[in-house]
Amino acid sequence: MRRRSIAATVTIVAAATAAALTGCAADSRGQEPGTSPRPTNEVRELTRAEQGKVEHAEERLIQQCMRRQGLDYRVVPRVDADTDRAFSYRLVRDDVAWARKHGYGERLRRAFFEEREREQAVSPGKALSSGKALSSAERERFATALQGPSDTPMLSVRLPAGGTVRSPNGGCTRTARDELYGDARAFFHADKIATNLSAVYMPRLMRDPRFTAALKAWSRCMRSETGRGYADPEAARADAQKSGDGLSDERAHAVEVGIAVAEAECARGITLHSTLVRLDGEYGAPVRERYAEEIADDRRMKLAALRRADRLEAGAGAR
């Protein structure tokens, strides 16, 4: 059975599920599930699970707003932690146990898309879960309710490393974000700055002799473990996908797991990951200091949104 490549569509989900996936490299989300909770008065990053809860709350608020206008809006179910991780970009992967179970997450990503396709097949061309085909006029009404009329001004932020990111700022999307974050415009500005800082310094970091030396050592380790020469982790991941083409699912997964486990073991064994973490602190600290206000604003608004999401979830459970 030939495996369908999904590399071209990964970026679609990255944009939709957000935060760690926006920009050239994902900044960390801080505390992971299973660790001790931080004080509630600390201005901190959300965990990945908390961020997922906030994003789900935004979808539910949009749904409520759309229903008030007589329109049906389907909330995309939250994905589990492993699927979320499968869509997360990491320059260096060093979790051997996760790699041994999931490889690079190809099966998880494929399952995600197949589930979305099954949902679409149930009601193709329909108004989400309403069961009614949408005419051109109805589609326009739906889009206007969701994001505002076509002449609605877009939110726009110039990123620290260059380039501009834009987002609709009207309709139920704005209503939900204003309710969740307090000020959709202020949040968009702070969030896009705070979560796209690594692109400012990563090019210099990756030219640092300490990083290039660790990368060469990692490459030698990979050749020893797999018999193949990979210049960097990206090359290994690309080869894992290419090597699976034309194989059965089981065999392709075994190939993917073998390369992924070797990458993680080599990253730990020759300290590529720890070198990257150390250099990230060195190169990133001045950049984060320069944008300290945006980082603090982003964290405060996300923590406030988390509290609102908790209340929304508690209210839904009480009904």
Structure, explained:
There is one protein chain. This protein has 319 residues and is mostly helical. The chain is 63% helix and 3% strand. The chain has helices spanning 7-17, 48-68, 81-86, 96-102, 106-122, 136-147, 171-181, 184-194, 198-205, 209-226, 233-244, 249-269, 272-290, 292-318, and strands at 155-158, 164-167. Strands 1-2 form a two-stranded antiparallel sheet. Strand 1 and strand 2 form a beta hairpin. Helix 10 (209-226) crosses helix 12 (249-269) and helix 10 (209-226) packs antiparallel against helix 13. The longest helix is centred in the last third of the chain and has 27 residues, at 292-318. It is globular and about 60 Å long. The model is unreliable at 1-40 and 123-131 (pLDDT under 50).
Task: Name the features.
two-stranded antiparallel ribbon; globular; disordered N terminus
Short description:
This protein is an all-alpha fold and 319 residues long. 63% of the residues lie in helices and 3% in strands.
Write the layout of secondary structure elements.
Layout: H1 7-17, H2 48-68, H3 81-86, H4 96-102, H5 106-122, H6 136-147, E1 155-158, E2 164-167, H7 171-181, H8 184-194, H9 198-205, H10 209-226, H11 233-244, H12 249-269, H13 272-290, H14 292-318
Antiparallel strand pairs: 1-2
Shape: globular
Q: How would you write the strand order of the largest sheet?
A: 1-2
- Number of strand elements: 2
Distance between the termini: 47 Å
What are the secondary-structure elements, in order, as H or E? HHHHHHEEHHHHHHHH
The structure class reads mainly alpha
- Main β-sheet, in a few words? 2 strands, antiparallel
Helix content: 55-70%
Mean pLDDT: 83
The Rg value, from CA coordinates, equals: 22 Å
* Low confidence ranges: 1-40, 123-131
* Beta-strand proportion: under 5%
The total of helices stands at 14
